[in-house]
Amino acid sequence: MALVARKGKIVYFKAFGHADTAANRPLQRDGIFRIASQSKAITATAVRMLWEEGRFRLDDPISKRIPEFKNGQVLNT
Fold first, then answer.
1. Which residues, at least 6 apart from 25, have a Cβ–Cβ distance to it below 8 Å?
2. Which of 4, 16, 27, 29 is 20 to 30 A from 58, alpha carbon to alpha carbon?
């Protein structure tokens, strides 16, 4: 499946392959399937887009977004 969006509008959206090869059923654009570990890549892309928009700096302390991390401590055992 491929989707390309530009300036908030979808300019290309097409499904490729089969949803069920045994039944020779083609994949539809609204097909549902697991993306497994691709969620990391999607999250990283979203974070990169926010950074490029200037929404945060890479050297911002994490506590700026998650206050519970403000007084973090390292435990020595």
1. 18, 19
2. 4
Greatest Cα-to-Cα distance within the chain, rounded to the nearest angstrom: 59
Coil, strand or helix: which one is 26? Answer: strand
| Mean pLDDT, residues 3-12 taken together | 95
Catalytic residue among 24, 37, 71, 73: 37
Contact in structure between 44 and 28 (CB atoms under 8 Å): no
Let me know if residue 13 belongs to a domain.
Answer: yes
37 counts as catalytic = yes
Tens-place pLDDT, residues 34-63: 777 888 999 999 999 999 999 999 999 999
